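TEACHING EXERCISE
Course module: macromolecular assemblies
Task: Read the component lines below, then compare them to the predicted structure of the full complex.
Student: A.B.
Group: 4
Components provided:
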Amino acid sequence: MIRLTLVLAAVTFVASMALGFVYQSTKPKIDLQDKLTKERARKIALPDAACGVFIEQEGDGTTYYRGYRDPDTTGFAGYVVTARGKGYSSTIETVVGVDPYGRITGLRITSQQETPGLGTRIQEVLSTRTVADAIAEMVGRGEVERLCVEVEADTTMPCVQVSLLDGVGCEALEKAVAERDTTRVIELVPPAFGISAEDSAVYLSTPASTFTLAAAVIGELRMRNTPWFLQQFIGKRAGNLLVRADESDEYIQAITGATISSVAVTESVREAIQNLRKEIGGFEEAAD
Amino acid sequence: LSSVGEFTKGFVKENPVFRLVLGLCPVLAVTTSLKNGVGMGLAATFVLVGSNVIISLIRKAVPSRIRIPCYIVVIASFVTVVDLVMAGYTPELHKNLGLFIPLIVVNCIILGRAEAFASKNTVGRSFVDGLGMGLGFTFALVITASVREIIGTGKIWDLVLLGRSYNPVVAAVLSPGAFITLGFLIGLFNLLEKRKA
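Instructor-supplied answer key:
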């Protein structure tokens, strides 16, 4: 019996030492990925904020982020707060952006381990990588989004329908953007985005307007890439969030991973916003 | 079997998925895209090779009565290594595979090879067996994922294959599509084996 114990102890000891080494080696990289995920989530949750500060609270207080439109911390854009709720098989962590009036500006789930195929579909996206994504990657999404913010202020250009290119066209456009070949980009963009020649004459008359178009597409993509489940939150106040629209004997709502996950997100977002309201002493009154 | 025979048996003759019908949970769940299939296959191959080698090394020192807990500790350690490395270096793939990475611990191919082969053979032969079986498993995942992704999205590895006019059969990337595709592929492998005989 002693031999059995010693052998098992030796195996587990060696395994734990090896795992300790791997953990220490990968920890900086995992922490960095975690930080990047949270930064990306914050940008999606509060897209108007160019910078901000974390307001740390001691004890049970709610830590939140105050976002500003301008780098000199002027032009208050809103708050970002993290919500945590118990889902079907994990704690779901959601980053929520709220404007100064308490309306949700966006949100992103940053961590969950729900049932694959059910609960994980709370993060489902409608579209996959498109040519507009490729443009954003080439010229830098930040630059395109900055352009988007700038041009949206003084243009009424409608968002165009994003359509997928075939492989050949996509590669050609990626190449043209990488080489900064504006003439070629202008040649390729109209068919890529499915707009007519007349429209393209208006939209693509200058290199700047080419990127304007790309910026508009990115704006639409941002919405299209928002998971369907999360769309319901946009523009709502905490008090408007619904756990369940109605109850009916005819339409029995099954208890599934998806239902439990969705309710967990809804409840946790509501609670996080209520806690934020207490922390800041209430939201501003909207004119409407 | 020769070393070449040990290596190649996992691809067709003793393919863990199509012939032995083992490890079906990740096959059904993660083969919605080729990227996921390759990622899961390589992760399982690493665990198979590593655990086979270590189990073969310690096989004479481990008493029979505690061999299964020892094997599980070894397998779980390799799975944890894969999990940590993927989380740090391939976060997107790690997110896509999700729960199925830790679940490699209970993949019956891994424990099956440890018990049936590595615990009775030399380190070299166990290495070749693990590599062959792992790549055979990857091969099965790649075929299943390719069929499902092409039919279900018209694309493969982000490359548009069937053109914009193709109307994807979304069911292929949902659960029923996984069962149907796997059923057809197992049938195909059985047919090939019958013809060979």
